[in-house]
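Changelog-linked ticket: flavin-adenine dinucleotide example.
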Amino acid sequence: MNTASVSRRTALKLAAGTAAAVPLLRTAGASAKVDERADVIVLGAGLAGLNAALLLEEQGYKVLVVEGRDRVGGRLYTMDDVPGRPEAGGSGVGTGYARLFDRCKQLNVAFEEHRPRTEGTAANTAIHVDGKTILARDWPSSPHNPFAGDTRKLPPWLAGPLSLLPFNPLPDATSWRDPAFAKHDRSVAEVLAEQGWTPAQIRLAYATNPSYGNSGHDLSAMMWWHIARNAEVMAGDGKVHASVGGNQRMPEAMARAVKGTIHKNQAVIGIRSDADGIEAVCENGSLFCGKALVCTLPATALRLIRIDPALPPKVQTAVDTISYNRVFQVHFVPTRRFWEADGLPPSMWTDTLAGRFMALNYGSDPADVTTFLAFVNGFQADRLDRMPPEAAAVAVLAEVERIRPSAKGALRPIKVWSWQRDPFAGGAYACWQPGHIATQAHAFDEPVGRLFFAGEHTAAVARGMEGAMESGERAALQIIERFQETL
Ligand SMILES: Cc1cc2nc3c(=O)[nH]c(=O)nc-3n(C[C@H](O)[C@H](O)[C@H](O)COP(=O)(O)OP(=O)(O)OC[C@H]3O[C@@H](n4cnc5c(N)ncnc54)[C@H](O)[C@@H]3O)c2cc1C
């Protein structure tokens, strides 16, 4: 048998146990049994996959979902086992997330305003750089503030993004992928160096707790410009929301509404297709067959999968090279209100292994701190990823205690989480390198045969959760358009 692809007839034969497994199946150690057939296989039970599944079912398609983890939600992950149920993944839902709100309304998922998980305001965050702890009000005159002019007045986490805004060439949230703007797909470092920024300024603004990329050199300025234009639409009235009880309640409600089976604990290792059908092969030997397949896996997970026939070079290049932001987290329970002893604000923005050390308040008392979260990105996350998880928690704690001795013995590490070490994520979210938007951002727009792409990294307009919803909708519409006459 030709190993290049497997046909619907072959799959049927395999189901009946009459044919020997094709080589890919043998390589995978798979059985010859077809576990389920559907019109559409959806890979991944995150927002993109579940939205695609629901939309396709609404149009009468039989759908099955294959999910590698033992839970749905993907990068929406509410830590139900940590006090206050902090979000490890997506936290803030903008007022303009129309698809997400619409779906959640339909499924009776309630929202509340804001679940805090970022550095907050200058008033409640101390700045710790170059070994010195500085109150936000003292930052503009601090000798450790490397910035010039009005930028000195900004807290360091705003200095980078806000300084780029005056040069934003994009007229709206859709134009970042327009070839007319390709010449602006340059590194943040290049753009800011032209404005007279020094390497030290660029490093503090873009290589210290970076929300995107690791430094000013591996991030396209177009990414921030798109984020800014997108925020004008998505932020709506500026209020940030989250679903009551945690954001994972959204995909859980969506999963309950999916009529087809959601096969959990099924790590896909191969996708094969031919003129008659497409199938997903799992590590444990399960085999799922369909007419079309929506792949919502992050590129970091997709690049570990064998695809037969091979993807076109442009698509494979995008799969292999899209960067993902690093997010390493250590969650701590406070056993004493140590911040009242040293008079510093409870949260800190640091240039150390403690990253952004944030006091989270998920309780009913506004003065409460339910947990602390060390939210660590970029190169510091790389350092923590190279340690065993327990050692990483100890290293972060040692850093916090060094910075503020009043915290000694007052913090109990309760959970460590690395999105890069999670085999089903491989990073937090896509961030585009200089030149990649122009050459690769369109790579997933069109299906490859029976393989359709979705996932936040494939969104054309929205970002984050709403981007995931948008991408699932696009893939579902493409399938409906392609297969409407044959069903
Ligand atoms: C730390 C962090 C903070 C964020 N903050 C925000 C925010 O404030 N606001 C916002 O809007 N967005 C935020 N996001 C982004 C948002 O969470 C994501 O954009 C969105 O959840 C992605 O959905 P998705 O369906 O595209 O991908 P995913 O949720 O990753 O879904 C893909 C699914 O595929 C599964 N999978 C992977 N590999 C395999 C395999 N081999 N076999 C089978 N299944 C597999 C995964 O388990 C997963 O369930 C944040 C994300 C992170 C990580």
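Closing comment: Example verified and attached. The radius of gyration is 24 Å. Residues 43-49, 66-69, 74-76, 89-92, 267-268, 296-298, 301, 327, 419, 424-425, 428-429, 455-456, 464-465, 467-468 surround flavin-adenine dinucleotide (CB under 6 Å).
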